[in-house]
Specification:
By secondary structure, the protein is of the alpha/beta class. The protein has two domains: 132 residues, Aspartate Aminotransferase, domain 1, CATH 3.90.1150.10; 240 residues, Type I PLP-dependent aspartate aminotransferase-like (Major domain) (Aspartate Aminotransferase, domain 2, 3-Layer(aba) Sandwich), CATH 3.40.640. The chain is built from 13 helices and twelve strands. The longest helix has 21 residues. The chain is globular. The two termini are 31 Å apart.
Amino acid sequence: MNYFDYAATTPIDPESLHVVQTVSEEFWGNPSSLHDIGGKAQHLLTKCREKLAGMLGVPSKGIYFTSGGTEGNHLALVTLALSRQEKGKHIILGGAEHSSLHSSAAFLEQFGFTVTKIPFTSQGLIDLQVLEESISEETIIVSIGHVNGEIGTIQPLHDIKNLLINRDILLHSDMVQSFGKMDITEFTSIVDSFTLSSHKIYGPKGVGALYINPSLDVSPMIPGQTHEDGFRGGTVNLPGIAGFVTAASICHDSISTPHFFRLRTRFLSQLEEQLPGTYTLYEGPAPAQLPHVVGLGIHGLEGQWLMLECNRRGMGISTGSACAAGSQDMSKTLTSMGVGQRAGKEFIRISFGKVTNEEHVGALVQTLSEIHAAHVSSLT
């Protein structure tokens, strides 16, 4: 199987896997236990927290390890909202945010919060004018994902932050899709909270991190919990955390943007050669586009059917976020961009990984061309 769904998940890096096994065998104590075995585990947990914080350029006191991006987003939005509700109960979300943020916002609506969802422009970027017009005296949080997981557009966090200056409004960003693909340290310093996930960067599944600026006066979503400074219940997954931080360190030291640019350029040029005028590409301006994610629709081919046909021929692609798999709804991203229902149903996502090469890309384009040709032939 030629895999082109790295934006959904990645295989674990051998070094990360080795660390998971070693820590499972040698640091198996509960970090909250007071004996020496627990103390040994606690020391490693502290080192992991400090190492990750160093990569991110943030205080280690603000790092909380979680089970992944979804839990991190739940904890961030609900914790910040409930802690700030005396100021106001208005939340602003990007219309194409990860489903975990939409579900967290829906949960908060049961407690009297109101939610405004900001659309994307035709280039897949948050509409800054609509965002500015949506801010009110009641607004307490704005949540905009850093990189869109379906088409790879990079959202203008600096411009968004500028709209919030002197307004006492917190900015949360889901950075799951940007971490490990680009240097995010210039953005971690301007947001109040952000989330990361291990399995997007060749680390183990079931692990992630949430950062909340430690200078903020916030209370845990559920009181009385004893782990992660009271922000999360349950014994920490130390082997997973160590594997996550190991994978993060590898990605941090070897961000391969030129590799992905070459693959994207090759893919799009070959697509234009073999299927000219038969597809729509969804992307942002070059400076606001990560190259490893390609969102497109081939005219006349339903995305789910095309995905299954590709799978039958040994090519693994997707129709968008894996968290929406099985849903008959259109992609949140395309809906937010104002794309029509028919075109939206044609959407597919192709995402490259560090082992993807130009031969893989060429084989995928050939497969897409053959499927399209067979479909056209069946109609005549």
